[in-house]
Design goal:
The structure is a single chain. With about 625 residues, this protein is an alpha+beta fold. It is built from 24 helices and 21 strands. A hairpin with a 3-residue loop joins β19 and β20. α5 crosses α9, α11 packs across α20 and α20 crosses α21. It is globular and about 80 Å long.
């Protein structure tokens, strides 16, 4: 079988060569390589001295991007591409670490193991292949026939399976060594069941930290510094860029609104005349998510959908099968159709016609955008940015964008700024012209802070606030003690009333769900499950208040129901612990490795060459 696998290698190598050349042409034509500064063999990082090349990184990113595009049905944006680049880099790091660990441990795979796996343990992609299904389930007989067919050899499947299992089986052996001793006792399973099925309802009095004035507490600089040193790793922050943004809005006038309304009316009439709502939605609707499914919004109650008021009111009394008139909203004009109505539940479709500029208005805006781009886009002269914006009478705003996050200004999404700022741009540089649905933009990078642990100066106010809140809770504890003592001799209600405090009641809650006012996984929740019914607690400090509580009702977990489901629970819990063990192993491997990341440096080098060119 392995000989058959290898006999088909020439087909696979042809595909690999095409993929290699395609990837090379992609990065060459994208301009990312610059002018001989960055090549396909340039190291963008290394793992314990083993390089990750630019081409490896770009090919891994391209595979992720293709998967994302197949899943969403649209091209990835530059902001999304930046996230995928980070993901691809981390995947390559993990692959190298695993390869190095397998070599260190001497874990290998035999030809017989590959044959057995290929015969009886097909990869997930083949398990889900429609051609290998019978009545919606994977059919082993179809798979065996496919393996033995000439098509499998001609398509290079056997060789691809060998490559897959030669990498996958050693990894599975490694993970089994790491996690095969995981065992959960019955006592642990019962405690886990209790955590999700024991429930209580309590009454409580809260003395919040906000009840203490700021003047009553004092946090010293040494306390702030000590807290920072102890919790330093918790202050890891993403990259942060300060930018100036020139905005050229696509102004919508009355004529534009009238034109969009007229288009919506034409679309509605087309459906009335016999066209399929689904086909028209796929062609006309600007709501890409629902348009791909014929305008379908799903089935829910109107409140459950969470629509804007204009849409909700129009859909409320719309008869099944009838089209609404064009419904105006901040997003444009909606044509709504109710497919089915059962009580308060509706199945809805819609077509969204956006309000956009007319052709004449768009031409005028586009000409100004061209002038803006020609004047300041993609240059490294900061002063020119301000002077051109002033000459053109355009607004300049000062914004902050975090690495991996999209920029939103006054509720408007401004695409691609984050990917540009953290993609090799240098301080003082201006971006290319950025286009969005509602305008054009040019950004200038004013400051750039790479991801890492925040300096003490950047987080000291946050720390000071947290420590002050803790001090305020401590100051509330003596008063909470008074409430507790008084409640023990009378009632919680009487004690609270005598001190002018309110008694709050919770719904039933479990150890893991928590309750409003008590928090989740807080000391107050723990106290609630440690008290008998009717007992009043001692004061309990939470993050925001001193709490005194009384348990009013308790429902214990059903042990007979637990015994029925215990085998399934054991399987799920042990599988979860095994995954955690493997993930912890990988995290430890990553932490102990010497990993260098030169991507920002490589990008910056490419950007410098572009600016010089």
């Amino acid at each position: 079988m392995l000989q058959n696998m290898r006999s088909t290698a020439k087909y696979v190598w042809i595909l690999l060569i095409i993929f290699f050349v395609g990837g090379f042409l992609l990065v060459e034509t994208s301009g990312l390589l610059g002018r001989a500064t960055v090549t396909t063999g340039t190291a963008v990082g290394s793992v314990n001295g083993e390089d990750i090349t630019y081409l490896e990184w770009q090919n891994a990113t391209q595979q992720l991007a293709q998967g994302e595009e197949a899943r969403t049905g649209r091209s990835v944006s530059p902001d999304e591409l930046q996230r995928l680049e980070d993901q691809a880099f981390e995947q390559l790091v993990t692959e190298i670490l695993l390869k190095q660990e397998l070599k260190r441990r001497g874990i290998k795979v035999t030809d017989d193991e590959i044959r057995q796996a290929a015969q009886y343990s097909p990869p997930p992609q083949l398990l889900q292949s429609p051609e290998l299904q019978t009545e919606g389930r994977f059919d082993p007989e179809k798979y065996q026939r496919y393996l033995a067919s000439p098509a499998a050899r001609q398509q290079g499947l056997l060789y691809q399976l060998e490559l897959y299992y030669r990498q996958e089986i050693p990894r599975q052996k490694l993970f089994e060594r790491i996690a095969n001793d995981v065992y959960v006792t019955d006592a642990e399973l019962w405690r886990g069941w209790q955590d999700t099925h024991d429930s209580v309802q309590v009454a409580f009095v809260a003395l919040p930290a906000d009840g203490i004035p700021d003047s009553a507490v004092k946090v010293t600089d040494s306390e702030v510094k000590a807290f920072y040193q102890k919790h330093r790793d918790s202050f890891t922050r993403p990259g942060r860029a300060a930018i100036s943004l020139v905005s050229l809005p696509k102004v919508i006038g009355p004529a534009d609104t009238a034109a969009s309304l007229a288009r919506a009316e034409r679309v509605r009439q087309e459906i009335i005349d016999g066209a399929s709502f689904a086909d028209v939605a796929a062609r006309e609707s600007s709501d890409e998510a629902s348009a791909a499914d014929g305008g379908l919004l799903g089935t829910n109650t109107l409140d459950g959908f969470g629509f804007i008021p204009e849409f909700t009111e129009a859909a409320r009394d719309l008869p099944v099968g009838q089209l609404s008139q064009p419904v105006p909203s901040p997003f444009g004009y909606h044509i709504i159709k109710v497919d089915e109505r059962k009580g308060d539940t509706l199945t809805l479709r819609h077509i969204l016609i956006p309000i956009t500029q007319s052709d004449s208005s768009a031409v005028r805006t586009d000409r100004r955008a061209d002038s803006l781009a020609n004047a300041i886009a993609n240059n490294d002269k900061p002063a020119l940015f301000d002077s051109v914006a002033k000459q053109m009478g355009l607004k300049v705003s000062h914004e902050t964008v975090l690495q991996g996050n999209s920029l939103v200004v006054d509720g408007r999404y401004v695409p691609d700024v984050s990917s540009w700022a953290f993609g090799g741009a240098v301080v003082g540089e201006s971006s290319d012209l950025i286009s969005s649905d509602d305008g054009y933009y040019v950004a200038r990078l004013d400051t750039l802070q790479q991801a890492g642990v925040a300096e003490l100066a950047a987080v000291q106010d946050l720390i000071r606030t947290q420590l002050a809140r803790e001090q305020k809770v401590k100051l509330q504890m003596p008063k909470a003690e008074q409430v507790s003592v008084a409640a023990a001799s009378s009632s919680l209600e009487s004690a609270a009333a005598s001190m002018g405090l309110a008694v709050n009641e919770t719904p039933m809650f479990t150890r893991v769900s928590g309750a409003p006012g008590l928090g989740t996984f807080s000391k107050a929740v723990g106290a609630a499950f440690g008290l008998p019914v009717g007992a009043v607690s001692s004061p309990v400090a939470t993050d925001d208040a001193a709490i005194v509580l009384r348990v009013d009702r308790r429902v214990n977990a059903d042990s007979s129901a637990w015994l029925v489901q215990k085998p399934l629970q054991r399987q799920q819990v042990e599988s979860g612990f095994q995954r955690q063990r493997v993930q912890q192993f990988l995290s430890n491997l990553r932490a102990a490795a010497k990993v260098t990341d030169r991507r920002a440096e490589v990008r910056a080098a490419g950007r410098r060459v572009e600016l010089q060119g």
